[in-house]
Request: fold
Amino acid sequence: MSEQYDLIVIGGGPGGYVAAIRAAQLGMKTACIEKRGALGGTCLNVGCIPSKALLQSSEKFAEAKDHFAEHGIKVGSVKLDLKAMMGRKDKVVGELTKGIEFLFKKNKVDYIKGTGKIVKPGEVSVDGKDTLKTKNILIATGSETTPLDGVEIDEKMIVSSTGALELDDVPKKLVVIGAGVIGLEMGSVWSRLGAEVTVVEYLDRILPGMDSEIAKQAQRVLKKQGLEFKLGSKVTGAKATKSTVTLTVEPAKGGDAEEIKANKVLLAIGRRPYTEGLGLDDAGVKVDNRGVIQVDENFKTNVDGIFAIGDCVPGPMLAHKAEEDGVVCVERIDGQKSHIDYNLVPGVVYTWPEIAGVGKTEDELKEEGVEVKVGKFPFTANSRAKATGETDGVVKVIADAKTDKVLGVHILGPLAGDLISEAVIAMEFGATAEDIFRTCHAHPQMGEAVKEAAMAVHGRAIHMA
Ligand code: FAD
Ligand code: NAI
Reply:
């Protein structure tokens, strides 16, 4: 039996690696066990980072092909070098994952390569061999693609997001199942690179969970860019040959089935917690009927000394949420009173324009019967957006009608993912719409649209016709 740790983290994703570093900063003797051979988890290896690298590259390709001319720039025929684009993505991923190894060394976190299994509280085995002793165990094993009956992922013809990040060729026709975050981001990538993309969605709207008005506008803009949407439809089966996939699709509410043919299919109907082989049953750790590990406000499971964070516990499956979970969890183990406000976890979809939101949606507030005032400002009236030529979108600020306190901010527009940070900070400090618009915003900036939308809550936007 080897030495005793204060904390062993199982899983080296954004939840696990950040928790491990924070624990080490607090003086805990810490180890992190990771089985994929690289740190950074889903996010750095097959999620946030490679997808954003491809979104950036494909956006540049689309710009050069379709938008340089309007800026008075003439280029010859623009050609795609997909291999080089993929190579760049892999380089970005490699540099970032290696960077975490360096941070582990700097902070004296032991990086243990292998599969961790809880033997019992206080003991974790690695690859079924070495058993390590520890005061506390932190589960941060993340999530995996939710499967769909009748649509078997082979990562060649029918791919998950992982396969969609490394296709060898641009498919002539790609069908995406699920108009959520992955569907729209990866659908955008391959559409920009030349694929005909159809997104099949069960519900009668895209991006459930985001403000429905913003989602509707986003759908219009994405349609303009070439994405086709087939809403209110469910895929009931898929047959793949070497070159074609035939999908059977039915109206969600019932009715006649039809067949859709594609050269590739991306299944993106959500993710589910991943806890396979972790020994949860033997350790007596409670999960719900969807496999989500149940934790209290200190991220403690029902078993003393075993904690869990990130995608495998309740809450949005987002890297920044997993990171905050990790920090708060280990600070609580350290006896501190840290906290996280789950209402203020921003969500960003990195299409172009981007889609971002924080706080409550107008739909949720209506349902709760809260009286609100809504201010909107379109990017067509923002001078910076005009100058850059990116005027699709709107900022929507929702405030309490009586107190003016900001309850939600939702943005479709250029750099929406960066603009939302202003709203998150304002809301974290309990700001009113007036607090936002009395704050001086630099000119000319996209952020002035946030200020003007806050002014519109009071019916006093300046630059709106
Ligand atoms: P993970 O990142 O999944 O890490 C868990 C790690 O645990 C994995 O590396 C796994 O190998 C390891 N592991 C599992 N079991 C064991 C075991 N028994 N022993 C040892 N190791 C084990 N979120 C955003 O916020 N922004 C984005 O732009 C974004 N883009 C995404 C794009 C895609 C295509 C996908 C799929 C996801 C994206 N996400 C994004 C979501 C984000 O990746 C996750 O929310 C985040 O990675 C969760 O972090 P985590 O630490 O909980 O789990
Ligand atoms: P999602 O939950 O965002 O979207 C899934 C979509 O599939 C929903 O619209 C849902 O209604 C639909 N759906 C469900 N069953 C269906 C069926 N049988 N047929 C057709 N449609 C069906 O899940 P997604 O896109 O797979 O992403 C998984 C997770 O990864 C999300 O929780 C997200 O937070 C995270 N992620 C975050 C990103 C970001 O922050 N930019 C980027 C990519 C992923």
